[in-house]
Specification:
The chain is mainly beta and 217 residues long. The chain has five helices and 14 strands. It folds into two domains: 87 residues, Translation factors (Elongation Factor Tu (Ef-tu), domain 3, Beta Barrel); 116 residues, 3-Layer(aba) Sandwich (Rossmann fold), CATH 3.40.50. A six-stranded antiparallel β-sheet has the order 4-3-6-1-2-5, with helices on one face. The mean pLDDT is 96. It binds flavin-adenine dinucleotide and FE2/S2 (inorganic) cluster. The site of flavin-adenine dinucleotide (FAD) has 21 residues, from strand 4, strand 5 and helix 1.
Length: 217
């Protein structure tokens, strides 16, 4: 069940171009890999959706790409600060697949460390824009890492059950049956505002309740 709580910041660590935000877990359920949380972004009216990256005992970790005011405020939090967190929300990945292969592009790798743990570390491929972004692969030991101009689609093997998260062109290139975590700007996170409605496969979906993980047609 989702829950709203004010959680203390344990610390924020630089991971290449990203920031790993570590929060005290409190009584919040970490949920399933691929589910997300709405995090209060200091100084902003609306919270921001983030996937759970890792859930070591008594903590929740989020990998943040500081691309705008909300994510920058989250990346600049300090030990001792506290923010409201609501979740877990949405539908995560179906873990009952026989031959999982995890595929991440850029900040789309955020939910994969938690997913890798749940699936006992299956093969994984991560793609990044630069070597500096690729430093985040330290959170996914054993993953194959490619950097532009090589794309994950250039090295994708056949015969696996793909579970992916990344930029839209990467998701569009995944095989039918792949489980894909999509993104859209979200205001509420629980189905009330329709701000996250996107057309996928000719149908309008509210990603916060019907996704973010959807099976590719
Ligand atoms: C389910 C879900 C999980 C996510 N998980 C993570 C995560 O683990 N780590 C992380 O860093 N980010 C994640 N994001 C994306 C993150 O929520 C946005 O980057 C953030 O809300 C942007 O807020 P901002 O104030 O920093 O920038 P804004 O000024 O709000 O946005 C900067 C730019 O990005 C665009 N934008 C904003 N949000 C999105 C979005 N969701 N999809 C596509 N474009 C967008 C805006 O239109 C604008 O051009 C996730 C998004 C969703 C929906
Ligand atoms: S974010 Fe409000 S309906 Fe999805």
């Amino acid at each position: 069940m989702p829950r709203r709580e004010r959680l203390s910041v344990v610390g924020v660590e630089r991971v290449g171009e990203y920031a790993l935000l570590r929060l005290v877990r409190g009584a919040i359920d970490p949920g399933l890999p691929g589910q997300f949380f709405m995090l209060e972004a200091p100084g902003r009216v609306l919270p921001r959706p983030l996937s759970l990256c890792l859930a070591p005992s008594s903590e929740l970790h989020f990998l943040v790409d500081p691309i705008g005011p909300g994510t920058t405020a989250l990346a600049e939090l300090e030990r001792g600060d506290a923010i409201h967190v609501y979740g877990p929300l949405g539908n995560g990945y179906d873990l009952t697949v026989p031959r999982p292969l995890l595929v991440g592009g850029g900040i789309g790798m955020a939910p994969l460390p938690y997913l890798a743990e749940a699936l006992r570390f299956p093969p994984a491929i991560l793609g990044f824009r630069t070597e500096r972004h690729a430093e985040a692969a330290v959170l996914m030991p054993g993953a194959e890492v490619v950097v532009d101009p090589v794309f994950v689609t250039d090295v994708l093997p056949h015969g696996y059950d793909v579970l992916a998260c990344g930029p839209e062109p990467m998701l569009q290139a995944m095989p039918a049956g792949a489980q894909l975590a999509w993104e859209a700007p979200m205001a509420c996170g629980y189905g009330a505002c329709y701000g996250c409605a996107v057309a996928i496969g000719g149908e309008l979906k509210r990603l916060c309740v019907e996704g973010p993980v959807l099976v590719a047609a």
